[in-house]
Amino acid sequence: xxxxxxxxxxxxxxxxxxxxxxxxxxxxxxxxxxxxxxxxxxxxxxxxxxxxxxxxxxxxxxxxxxxxxxxxxxxxxxxxxxxxxxxxxxxxxxxxxxxxxxxxxxxxxxxxxxxxxxxxxxxxxxxxxxxxxxxxxxxxxxxxxxxxxxxxxxxxxxxxxxxxxxxxxxxxxxxxxxxxxxxxxxxxxxxxxxxxxxxxxxxxxxxxxxxxxxxxxxxxxxxxxxxxxxxxxxxxxxxxxxxxxxxxxxxxxxxxxxxxxxxxxxxxxxxxxxxxxxxxxxxxxxxxxxxxxxxxxxxxxxxxxxxxxxxxxxxxxxxxxxxxxxxxxxxxxxxxxxxxxxxxxxxxxxxxxxxxxxxxxxxxxxxxxxxxxxxxxxxxxxxxxxxxxxxxxxxxxxxxxxxxxxxxxxxxxxxxxxxxxxxxxxxxxxxxxxxxxxxxxxxxxxxxxxxxx
Length: 453
Fold this sequence. Notes:
With 453 residues, this protein is α/β, with parallel strands linked by helices. The chain has helices at residues 17-20, 22-35, 51-56, 86-104, 117-132, 163-168, 181-201, 211-218, 220-228, 248-261, 286-292, 339-349, 358-363, 365-374, 390-403, 440-452, and strands at residues 4-7, 11-14, 62-68, 71-75, 107-113, 140-147, 171-174, 203-207, 238-243, 275-281, 300-302, 307-309, 319-320, 351-356, 386-388, 412-417, 421-422, 434-437.
């Protein structure tokens, strides 16, 4: 079992969490499967752990650093190929795909709609499967579909290295009315084309939109905390803060906490469940408004200053450039179905939420950079270079919440550092490596071409 290391800058590090907590994650998978009311779209459990799996997952280190009294950063973005927490779930999905291929002899073609990061991480995982010998391009492929609004999020990876790989693993950008429509477009194509593709090519289509694909992997966050920062009877009240779209990461943590509470692992059982603190942007604030039972307040335009103001709700930005501001296209989900479950967890264990504006992120930018640097995370000095804002948003949200007494002074806060990159840190995907579509028929042709490549 890999050792927990100590680094001068980045604090405590758990090496390869998918390998280290393999048995606990398997327990989480069985627990999730038992609670389902419908069968999963793709298998949830893994085969036995192997040396190849350990090599494949070695980019899943997690760091935990105390950056100031009662403030911790949980660094979930240490894979240099993605710089986001989506790595963990993506590697687990691809490892399960490789196990399915070995067990059944079937080939697997993944189809994933995404606003950017999820697709990037799955492509990185497929490339790692090729590199480590877990699967070959003839056995495993992926079609990624993103909305045009997410063009700036798309990152390069080894799957663009040659024309044959690009055809077999296309990145598709859709001209859709709303970013979330990529889910409807992709599900339509999968529903009508899966049988034909399997009959003519032997490729079984795996559609990735299943909450449990992410909850099971994100359960490891609770295991890291139990090992590095366990909650005891003497611990201060604790919140886990996260910049969220649908809060899959926090729901995964909750699943992991349940596994620990069952006492089925060698890790310590937490004395209590921490609260959840959600951070969102104005364009997609549905998790926070649902949690708080309130609407986004009315903003008044200040013509002289050229901005919008409100002073009625401390949970929302006092000033913003627009009442429907999009800071980051990754956070594109409106009215997520996970609201009810998150609300129930917060009602039982405490927490809250805040919505931040770009102006607030910029006002706190130097402080955020300094705190991140203390955890070994270097944020670009020029905010215009940032392509993934979740880390900046999460820390900003905690800072403004402290100032407004939305988080009490006696509370420890663990910030989930779930994503940050710039073009310099992670190269963007080139235009000539994209395929653009506008209809289901267009997408169906691309998926069929990928299967036949």
